[in-house]
Amino acid sequence: MKLSSTALPADKIKADALIVTVRDGQPLGPPAMEIDRASGGLIQRLVANGEISPREMSCTRLPSVPGIGSPVLLVVGLGSSDKNEPDQPTPGLSFRAMAAATRSLASRERKHVACCPDIFPLDEAVAGAMTGCVGQDLFRHEKNIHPIAQMTFGGANDADLSRGEILGNSINLTRRLVNLPASEIFPESFAEECQHVGKACNIDTEVWDRARLEKEKCGALMAVAKGSDRDPRMVIMNWKGDPGGAPPVALVGKGVTFDSGGLSIKPSESMLDMKCDMAGAATVLGAMQAIAQLKLPVNVTGYMGLAENMISGRSYRLGDVLVARSGKTIEVHNTDAEGRLVLADVLDVAVTRGTAKIVDLATLTGACMVALGKYVVGGMTNNQEWYSEVASAAARAGESLWQLPMFAEYGDQIKGQVADIKNVGDGRWGGAITAAKFLEQFVANTPWVHLDIAGPSFLEKPLPWSDAGATGYMLRTLVKLIENEA
């Protein structure tokens, strides 16, 4: 998408379509007021009689509005704002509203769309606009969603456009990788994508192949990969934004590029979207690209553990005892609880290499969706101060995060009888928390936050602001978190 800005009044802009915004219970902002004056009060009349809804992310398309230079006008609702502080920045709303706008317009091909939103920050609006018009129809000859070739933003400056473009491209990178089928994205090809990003963004990139993983005694990760014909990988990407400064923040992603469940095989309907089980790793890669392109002055290392969980005569079995890289022994009680095994070794690498703080992201448990639904990330931690920083970044990004408890009793549920620990808790209750207690065994005393993104990282059905499939959720949170570390 080509991006540009304009200082023209909204009614004078010529494009295939023009976007303006309205708020519930608030006077029209300057761009909508310019359209209203040019059209003889049309916008206010349609809002008053209910034809234009100011409800958040509602989109009303008006063709041939008199007095304006664009043949189509799209009016986007922003919902209600704080009447005492109506001009407070709302990054989440900026992102979602403009994503909803371009998604609405992208049902047909449009070469040039202009956007004059009464909302800020505009960089988030730019990022949202870039993601809303990109969908999961990667292999359709007749597209459902048509990317917009050019967008012009009223009132935006070069910094808004640059930052928004970086965020939008990074989110779309994550979404594309997650939406690609497992025949296209597997450990080796994912690692190659990391190398391309590393080269383009000046990020030192290390790839551990099977031989290196064996040498490093990554027994938990290697066990998950045993049933697949695709060799596993671990990718380590070092962004040295502050050379000689503090130890890096570690971003750790689960990258199970396809999850059959192994011998604890999933039913077909549960396996269909298991290409998305590498969304954690894809989010880390997208975040690393954004962090580097924004040139954030923080040392950050991205770790991605990549494996396929498949079935063959080589598959790891229930009852097997694994020796993780840390030396801890693990009883396998369920081969479909594989993501935590992959992360166990990756987290240990991050700790032993030296890191100040860790955030891991994983599509780890269905139990988290049972607890919180499909649109909320579950957060767990061993350090409340670090969690508060992550939660603050999520709030600033407008991405939904809710903390789950980490009481010691949950840790008792993963104690093994044959080995040190087992890879599931006792029964189905509290499964998201017992999974986090398992991961906690591999972070030592390092401040650590675990984000279970199983729900919002991949949509079964479209939402107003996103096509079905991958969303790139929590990438903006990670960027804001790292910016706060500067």
CATH architecture name of the largest domain: 3-Layer(aba) Sandwich
Mean pLDDT level: 96
The N- to C-terminal Cα distance equals 30 Å
Note the total helix count.
16
**Major sheet:** 8 strands, mixed
Number of domains: 2
Brief sketch in words of this structure:
With 486 residues, the protein is an alpha/beta fold. The protein has helices at residues 30-38, 42-48, 91-105, 122-132, 158-179, 187-201, 210-215, 219-225, 268-271, 279-293, 339-353, 366-372, 384-397, 408-412, 431-440, 475-485, and strands at 2-6, 17-22, 59-63, 72-77, 112-116, 150-154, 204-208, 233-240, 249-259, 299-309, 321-323, 329-331, 357-362, 377-381, 401-403, 421-422, 448-452, 458-459, 469-470.
Overview of the structural elements:
This protein is an alpha/beta fold. It folds into two domains: 2-156, Leucine Aminopeptidase, subunit E, domain 1 (3-Layer(aba) Sandwich); 181-485, Zn peptidases (Aminopeptidase). The protein has helices spanning 30-38, 42-48, 91-105, 122-132, 158-179, 187-201, 210-215, 219-225, 268-271, 279-293, 339-353, 366-372, 384-397, 408-412, 431-440, 475-485, and strands at 2-6, 17-22, 59-63, 72-77, 112-116, 150-154, 204-208, 233-240, 249-259, 299-309, 321-323, 329-331, 357-362, 377-381, 401-403, 421-422, 448-452, 458-459, 469-470. A hairpin with a 5-residue loop joins strand 11 (321-323) and strand 12.
Observed structural traits:
single chain; 486 residues; alpha/beta; Leucine Aminopeptidase, subunit E, domain 1; Aminopeptidase; 6-stranded mixed sheet; 20% strand
